[in-house]
Fold each of these.
Amino acid sequence: MTDLDATARRILQGNDRGGYTVPTAGLYPYQWNWDSVFAAMGFVTFDTDRAWREVETLLSGQWPNGMVPHILFHKVEPTYFPGPDVWGGVGPVPSSGISQPPIAATFIRYLADLDPSGADRAKAMVGPLTDWHRWFFDWRGEDGAICVSHPWETGRDNSPDWDAPFAAIEPANLDAYYRRDTTHVAEDERPRRWDYDRYLTLVKLGHDCGWDEAHLREVSPFRVADPTMTFTLLRANRDLLALAQRFGAETAEIEGWIAAIEAGSERLWNAEIGAYDTFDMRAGKHSGVISNASFLNWYAGVRPERMLDHFDRIAGLLPYGVPSADPQQPGFEPKRYWRGPVWAMMNWLIALGLRDAGHDGRATALCDTTRSMISTGGFAEYFDPRDASPAGGRDFTWTAATWLAWASPTAKGFPWQA
Ligand code: DGY
């Protein structure tokens, strides 16, 4: 174990609230959906029972309609806004009203491989995961491309991808509000007020109709097909299929989703720039933005020959990749959250895909730069791609987990081959 391994463990233990892990104290004091799955991957390197509990607690917040929320407000913390009353979630645990990238099935499969004694726990998750994936397909699917109803659903909150759809939204009926995020993190590393007004407008729309998805699909001004969702769900369905086969569950429906999303992912291919990007269903337009999510096609097992040229071009521009936005496009800001900084856990997903697609050299190089980035900048939420300086929250759960499970020299390295 290295010193950094010990620090990473201490961060996970320090962020542990008993059955769930907060991304970082203060800024994000609740259980976040995909953060929590990464947390489990960190825990499994030294405490398998705690790893399983993390995902069990996450699934305990599943709504009757199958949705697994992006935030579970297990106990109210005044350091965070917008809290449970603003969201008005309708599930068994106070929650937000949207979901997040469904990476859970993929990493539950990995957990089950690492800890065969947890087979019964994995088996019990197949039904809930299937219900959650069906929710995506029913409410977010557009001919197999998976949409989001809020930028927060993708995790890539203020990506330049949302600039055009957001410009078309006029903030309406907002009560005065006080942001808490900028009391924890420098303002120039966070989304702007302009973005927040629109985030909250969309939250209010959902809140006011009790998160009626049929209604929202009709009236929401924001419906964008997104590579984060489409590619993580496609991969998650492949891994759910493997779990269903292992435990003798129904597979036909899952096979149908895989075929449909494989076809639907073509909607995200922007031939003009030769890259995957988002597609705004309301405006009928691609964003033209190359983000780090554009490189998740390998993770999804889609068209392994695509995106390599952009990957190599961007790797040649900055010492620490993969930046969350292309430095050669307008909108790039190297310190502002999802408009440029590098996210260690995105690098892990991209590298997993690269390895599965047979691009081993690139996968190893990305692991090496991620290792050196964390060694330089510490366990920050995200990093400046120019010099690996830390940005956003500190002592961050998913960065610590990504270190333990993948980037540390002592990590087991890549799990199963897809
Ligand atoms: C926030 O509050 O900034 C989160 O990203 C929402 O999920």
Amino acid sequence: MEFQKNIICIGAGYVGGTTMAVIAAKCPHCRVTAVDVDADRIALWNSGNLPIYEPGLDDVIRKARGKNLFFSTDIDGAIRGADIIFVSVSTPTKSFGEGEGMAADLQYWEKTARRIGESACGDTIVVEKSTFPVRTAFAMERILSTMNSGNRFQVLSNPEFLAEGSAVRDLEEPDRVLIGSHDGPEAVAARDELVALYENWVPREKIITSNIWSAELSKLAANAFLAQRVSSINAISVFCEKTEADVTEVARAVGMDNRIGSKFLNASLGFGGSCFKKDVLSLVYLCRCYGLHEVAEYWNWVVRMNEYQKNRFVQTMLGAMFNTLAGKKVALFGFAFKADTGDTRETPAADVARSLLAEHAEITITDPKAIENARRDLAGLPVTFTPDPYEAASGSDAVAVVTDWSLYKTLDYEKIFQSMNKPSFVFDGRNILDHSRLFEIGFNVFPIGKVSLVHF
Ligand code: NAD
Ligand code: UDX
């Protein structure tokens, strides 16, 4: 079949792989290729065992792969034939040098920009899909224009707002698609071409355009606002525990104000994931670079509050279990950073596990999708793993719910109680269990932001 457009994505990770799969499914007239330096990852994308767990993704891939969706390690070959190049490489927090622990590490996109400059043929649209610091497009344009004088490049910013666990739905029915560009005629033509691509399935009114710096900043700002909501409700949860207010009741009352809204007000043991901490810290670093120290500190507290909440969870366990965890057995229910994903990047579970081990507790971790990643994250530490939550809880002193998998709501807690040491404790870091029922069964129950239910 003759394809009308050749679209590629450099970086076949959570975002690149999933986004290309949905574009291929929605645009059968386009040939879509995701490329990556990681040959093992590409082999998994081409196998029956995808490199990531994402509800609905298997189906989308099965329908498009081999028809108009391809995964490959031939990066230069793909660049040569591309009309539109999405860049979705990693932008982790820098772990060395200037800005260590805060600034975004830009080495992967810079290598990518040089590679595009070397291999591209003809006029090419380059789309920033990764989350970049504001004004990255400027650097990208400089590299491309100095490297390849024969070709013309248009750089657009099209940040991705999908959340893991709901990525396919978020891509199929996005709240909005944002495309930032310069305002010259060639840039506007490139922007319109990307708009037309999304119009294959997204209603036109949901595709918004802006200047390129606004688009780059909007992504950092959106993640900062979302993270701020979680830190705000978590700050209220601490106050609830001191005053016998109930954080769920407060969140309900506050969220019903339609100026505020009800989403992202679930108190928890802290947010995790590859984006929130990294992007808020990137924003903090950028503010500092521009000399905006008060603004930097304001956003920095979103992350500090989150660290406090994660520590507090383990402190509560220690205090409740008579100030010693040495030799006690704790079952961690969940290790993924949220439900419906196997991703463990920046998961609060890893902090909890390490803090419990520092107290000489013995821990068993259970998770329906994240055990492989958990084993890798905690390699060398004395931790036991099992996919079976009943086995994890058996013989333990405490169960700590760390991930909000809905399966944990429906377990037989009578059976779990019978199999545990007494007194038995439940620490619900997600407030997903029926606390009164657990208390009736005999557990001592410690939720987040609510009165604890204790038998002694
Ligand atoms: P990821 O680590 O899963 O994927 C990035 C991929 O890029 C990896 O497979 C890596 O091998 C590849 N890569 C790195 N350097 C390369 C190079 N020079 N050439 C080719 N491939 C290269 O990361 P991700 O979660 O997909 O995130 C990618 C970007 O999207 C980040 O900027 C992130 O902030 C942003 N983002 C992520 C999410 C999310 O939920 N994960 C959501 C929105 C935006
Ligand atoms: C986030 C953004 O939501 C998404 O738009 C962006 O593109 C990438 O970063 P993600 O990290 O996949 O997505 O998951 P998200 O649903 O935002 O959850 C982040 C963390 O916050 C998780 O650990 C989650 O459990 C926690 N959270 C979320 C809460 O603790 N309470 C809430 O009310 C919501």
